[in-house]
Structures are given as structure tokens and as C-alpha cells.
């Protein structure tokens, strides 16, 4: 037994194929600075991995796909660095040649590789999920585009245009209020002003003279409505290349009118606002309101002031402009029609702004006194003109 053991010992000492590494404690003692540096790098890497994981967590609240993707890459990078440190250590501290399948270090390595593989699998699934979300967003946008391009259905188009007409009518009514208030504050004779717009109208009530001012606003704002460009020539006609009128309608509908004219003051809409203000508000009226022509001259020079009065006007201008580009989006375009004073009142083509009334002179039909809002032909349908009839008695 002793002889055999001695022989085995000799064989092990002389064999060039089986060399046992030095124990970890011995290697550490021989090069303590290298080991200390390795441990320091490992702890630094772990801290970086923790920081990357925290960034990944915070990117989910609120959900930010770009930050999540960047944090994911950072986590993977730190995991790779940690794996490289492990391999560096093993290269300088090799395992014995004779390794048992149950070796704990080998098992740990296998487990680490499996964990890393799971991490990659999770990342792949997340990227696949993000791709699916993007595909879903693209599909939704395509559906919205299709819906927007299919607006020409008669029922939808008629409802949409009716809503735009109602919005324009409301805007005329709303702007007449500050206009009348400014006239009162400036000492205007409102009876004389209403009579100068349309003389010798017999109003059922004195308060109905407000319709004269609404009619004045309407007449000025709808000049050249049937012309596709509204007789407005922007300085830069290629500002919105290849953009359909309906797309312009959708874009402007969601914008504040002041933002729209300030962003592109030389656009068709910007020029429209300037021109219509100068047509609607006479210099004498402007001077009586503000004591000077500073605002009027500023607009005349191509500017858009931020005064409350001009912003109120912009809301009116936006509603009329939207109605115009929507009307010209149809094929064929919507046609406008106006009624004149003394035309016989027609319940087919006209609607009275006075809702409750009776005929004042027996069986004689009322006549048109003022047109407050024009009418429109769209396809085979009629949107009635709004008028103030004469020869009526108010029953409300």
C-alpha cells in the first residue's frame, strides 16, 4: 500500500498533462493588488447595474418607450461587463483539470448563462410587444386617414356642413355684442347706426335692431365667399404644398386663431383676417373706439395685434374661413345663396331669426327685412337662409 502510494505521488509530480492551479488564497496572497482591483471593479459594476435597473423601473412611470429601451440596453451592457469580469477572474484562476460534473463553479456558470438567456428572451418579447404596439398605432392612424378621406358621404357631409354653418352664425351673433358695446361706449346713436345699415326697417321690437348689425357683419364677411381663394392671394402660395382643403379644415379647426395667424401671418387665412377686419371696421369707427388708428394701421401693415377686440374678431374670422374651405372641399363645391330685402318670405329657403311671431297685416305674407345669414345648396339639400322678416308681431 505504501509503495503504490509513493509511486502515484511520483507520477503526479512528474506529469506534464495534469497541473493543479494554486488555491485562491495563495493566488490572492501572491498578487493582492490585482485581486483588490478586480473586486473593486466588480462592486462598481454591481452599483452600475443597480442604477441601470432603477432607471428601467422609473421609465415605466410615466411610460416612456424611448427611456425604457435605453435603460434596457444599459442593463444588458452592465450584465455583459459583469460576465467579462467573471471570465477574467477564471482565466487567471483556472479550475483543476479533473472537474466533476457536480462542480459548484460549473453549475454556477451554467445557471448564470441560463439567467442571461432568460434576460435576452424577456428583451426579445418586450421588443416584439413594442413592435406590435407600433403596428397597432399605424393601423389606427390608417383607419383615421381612411375615415377622414371618406367624409364625402352625403349624410355625414350634410351634418358636418350644417354644424359649420351654425358655428358661423353663432360667431356673427357673438361678435356683434362687443361691437355694439364699443359703439355704446363711444357714444354712438344705435338707432341711427341701424338705420344707416338698412333704412326704414319696421322692427317688431326695438331690441331687434341688433339684427341690423349682425346683417352688416354677415354682408362684409361673406363677400367673395364663392371664390375658391376668397380673393385672397397669400405671399407664399406654396406654404402648405399638396394639402387638401379638408386637411386644412381639420388642422385649423383645432388651433387657436391667434396662434394660427402669428405662426403664419402671410398665409391665406392670415391675409383673410387682415382684409376682412379692414373692410368690417371703418377707420372712423376704429378712431371712435380707441381714440387713434394705431391698431388699424398695424393691421394695415400686415400685423396681428393681441388686443381683446381683435382676438374676438379672429374667432369670427376663423368660423367663416372654416365654413369657406369646407364648402370648397365638396365636389361639386357647396353653393351660397343670398336673399334680398322685400323678397317674399319662403319657408323652404328661409328661416326667421324671430321664432315666435304672427303676421301683422292679415293674410299678407311677411317679407325679408334683413338677411342675417346666407343659405346654401349642398347636393340636393337646402340649408335655409336666416332672415329678419318684416310685417310681423312678436308673440313670445
Automatic annotation (TrEMBL):
Residues 1-11 have a biased composition (Basic and acidic residues). Residues 31-151 form the DUF641 domain. GO terms for biological process: negative gravitropism; response to red or far red light. Residues 110-137 form a coiled coil. It comes from the Eukaryota. Residues 336-388 form the GIL1/IRKI C-terminal domain. The keyword Cell division does not apply. Keywords: Coiled coil. Residues 1-30 are annotated as: Disordered. The keyword Glycoprotein does not apply. InterPro entries: DUF641_pln, GIL1-like, GIL1_IRKI_C. PANTHER family: PROTEIN GRAVITROPIC IN THE LIGHT 1. This is Uncharacterized protein.
